[in-house]
Design a protein that fits this description.
The protein has helices at about 10-15, 20-35, 85-100, 100-105, 110-125, 150-165, 230-245, 245-250, 250-260, 265-275, 295-305, 320-335, 345-355, 365-375; strands spanning about 50, 60, 70-80, 130-140, 170-180, 190-205, 220-225, 285-290, 310-315, 360-365, 380-390, 395, 405-410. It has about 425 residues and is an alpha+beta fold. The strands form three sheets. Strands 8-10-7-11-9-12-13 form a seven-stranded mixed sheet. A four-stranded mixed sheet has the order 3-6-4-5, with helices on one face. The protein has a two-stranded antiparallel ribbon with strand order 1-2.
Length: about 425
């Protein structure tokens, strides 16, 4: 009989670059943090039933809360954070070098990557009239034996808990995988990708399609203070062209600013449209919501207006946050960018690549109520424009190259 101690590391797998025990440690970190979110759904659809213990237990969602309520549908969504983890990797190196108060406080933001992941999926789901319930995370890492692996995993897991609290969801499950050189990034840093999968519920009577959008309705802009998880490849290349490949070491403040965590709007949206539960009255009248991610304002808002065939005029959007303004300016004007003129981002491109300081656009007949709900959730909002009869998106720019000028985006002809 061959006896094997469970503490022994399988030599062949370890030599292939995978540490099973390190993977268990990381999985336990995610499990312990995830349990802190279970109270978010107590007494509501999404309350957690747990069978077993530890990270191998079964976690089910209690469906008893929906007995007797017909017309419900299951929604899901999946997304990631693109190349933003590279900026977090650079911030870790800068923090280690400088240890300044600013970098220590603002640069410790692998936590923000968890906010970005959560925001991307929960806000998409709530945008369509749904109520997010639970999120699962896929954590792919290069080597779990890296010196920074455990510390960064703890930051990501702690950030996931904070993000789930902000979104009102549970962190139900996850998967940690050690993939070696299949996951790359900045030089010798601990490399990882983080993706999210969300499930939620919607009532068929509250699905927001945009079909009832009509001229004269107001458009409320919801302010965003950072890049969220979109346009980051452009941001990284501009910063490298402006300050060199080690830009984060000379300008750690920029790494911290670029890592500003995404605001999570889903609970505010659920309060606006009421979510899946018809016994909950909507706090506002909402005809469409555009979540401003890839494609920017023209792409995302036009999709929501396509069902009605109408257009929009946006006269008073929020201005891009300072770091976004600076990145755009560097992309346009600095001489060091001469070999990289293809990075130039005029205002016409800005609003199609980045959010321009506007995380959501809400089409409504009750603008005051939408603004009040946003305020209750600590979010700035204002009337930015209105719906017009003819299709197309027209906005007054607040960017670098055409400030105060009108830009008109003409819809594609299919």
């Amino acid at each position: 009989m061959i006896e094997v101690h469970m503490d022994d590391v399988p030599a062949s797998y370890a030599n292939a670059g995978v540490d099973v025990h390190a993977g268990d440690v990381m999985s336990q970190i995610w499990n312990n943090e995830g349990e802190k979110t279970y109270g978010n759904r107590t007494g509501r659809l999404g309350e957690v039933i747990v069978y077993g213990s530890g990270f191998t237990s079964t976690r089910a969602i209690d469906l008893d809360q929906i007995q007797g309520q017909f017309g419900l549908g299951l929604l899901s969504g999946v997304d990631g954070v693109g190349t933003k983890p590279e900026i977090a990797e650079r911030a870790t190196e800068a923090r280690r070098r400088w240890l300044s108060d600013e970098v220590e406080e603002r640069g410790r933001d692998h936590r923000g990557i968890s906010f970005d992941t959560t925001a991307m999926v929960t806000d998409d789901l709530a945008r369509d009239g749904g109520e997010p319930i639970a999120i699962d995370l896929l954590f792919d890492a290069s080597s779990l034996n890296h010196e920074d692996a455990e510390a960064i995993t703890r930051e990501l897991a702690a950030g996931a808990v904070e993000a789930c609290m902000a979104a009102g969801v549970i962190l139900q499950n996850g998967e940690t995988a050690e993939l070696g050189d299949r996951v790359g990034g900045y030089e010798g840093a601990f490399h990882y990708n983080l993706g999210g999968f969300v499930i939620g519920a919607v009532h068929r009577d509250r699905i927001i399609t945009g079909a009832d959008v009509r001229p004269g309705q107001r458009i409320v802009a919801i302010q965003e203070d950072g890049f969220r998880a979109n346009g980051i490849s452009l941001v990284r290349k501009v910063l490298a062209a402006q300050f060199g490949s080690q830009w984060h070491m000379t300008r750690p403040d920029l790494a911290a600013s670029a890592l500003t965590p995404s605001k999570i709007y889903s609970q505010a949206m659920v309060e606006m449209h009421g979510g899946y539960d018809l016994s909950r009255e909507p706090g506002a009248h909402v005809s469409a919501i555009a979540h401003i991610t890839g494609g920017g304002i023209p792409g995302k808002l036009q999709r929501k207006l396509a069902a009605s065939g109408h257009g929009a005029v946006l006269e008073d959007l929020f201005a891009p946050p300072p770091v976004m303004h600076d990145v755009q300016e560097w992309s346009m004007y600095h001489q060091s960018l001469a070999p990289s003129k293809n990075l130039a981002t005029p205002d016409t491109d800005l609003y199609q690549t980045l959010n321009g300081g506007n995380g959501l656009l809400v089409v409504t007949e009750t603008a005051d109520e939408v603004i009040a709900i946003a305020a209750r959730h600590g979010i700035n909002a204002k009337v930015a424009g209105e719906i017009v009869k003819d299709p197309g998106i027209e906005l007054k720019s607040k960017g670098v190259t055409n400030f105060g000028e009108w830009i008109r985006y003409i819809p594609r002809v299919n």
